[in-house]
Specification:
By secondary structure, the chain is mainly α. The chain has helices at about 15-30, 40-45, 50-65, 85-105, 110-130, and strands at about 65-70, 75. This is Transcriptional regulator, GntR family.
Length: about 130
Amino acid sequence: MTPLRFQLKAGEPIIDQVIFAAKKAFISGELLPGEPFPSVRALASDLKIHPNTAHKAIQYLIQDRWLEVRQGIGTVVARRPEPRRGDRKRLLQQEVEHIVVEAIRVELKLPELLEAIEEQWAKIEKPQEAALG
């Protein structure tokens, strides 16, 4: 059974949702370095997505260094990759801008947005700390 937990959202590419769910599982400690990652068939079957989408998601995660292929073992979770040059800048320019636009659209005030970010941060980071400790 695939440990990725998410519900497909209309209007957002499926591959992006799968990649995000995988990264969240890696960061939160639900999937630890060295653990096997599902095959293309298993991922497609468990998530009820097209095998080509599952293949593209796995290839992206390998290329982005979240997964590694080990001879005789298969695809496993890698150690968290070091950020590449420009990753932080990209995050701040694209993702944060999106959050701010949506927050303003729903008339969320900055303190409420910061509180929501802190709550989500704690939910995701806490399981990882326990897994490492």
